[in-house]
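Preliminary data (for renewal application), guanosine-5'-triphosphate complex.
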Amino acid sequence: MEASFSTATTSKGQYPRNNRKWIVFSGRSNVGKSSLINSLLAKKNLARTSSTPGRTQTINFYDVGDRWTFVDLPGYGFARAPLRIREQWGPMIEEFLQVADAVKLALLVVDVRHQPTAQDQLMRDYLREHQRTLEVVATKIDKISRNRRVRHLKTVQETLNVPRVVPYSATRGDGKRELWKIIREV
Ligand code: GTP
Ligand code: MG
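Predicted structure:
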């Protein structure tokens, strides 16, 4: 899939104007949003990733093929982020979700190893309110055993109260087909 970086921004005046369908990647810091984007696009370093939470600090837009724009949001829930960053986050995301009519699909990304937090539930409510479709993606499934995976996926699904969860591994590519199918169908 052809993909290229478009824009990095913190305010709506700078969002790209295009006729693409926007697919938004949201979730806690460090769950693997940027890695998920790279994995879907089979690009190693298009979206910047880091083992240190708080890597993505702006809203980053990537044009994908001729139909989509992937939007990589900065993660939330990172207590050690600089105060300035934490204070910016709320208004920046809120503004984005309110004005971005182009968003056709919102992905809520969680780490399969951890029970979704109250902030994840808030984000789910937000995304449901503003976006057409919400899908939950549970990443890092390569990091736990098959048994635990089944149990944890159930916990994620129940805690977020969603009809399904897409299991994903950015390192192995599990879930890639299923997620592309979902993206193509929006
Ligand atoms: P912020 O930008 O801080 O919000 O983080 P992010 O959600 O974009 O996370 P990022 O993609 O930077 O990944 C965080 C860390 O998790 C990196 O060290 C990745 O290599 C690792 N990681 C992400 N996805 C996977 C996965 O599916 N499996 C494994 N084993 N590691 C992963
Ligand atoms: Mg990131």
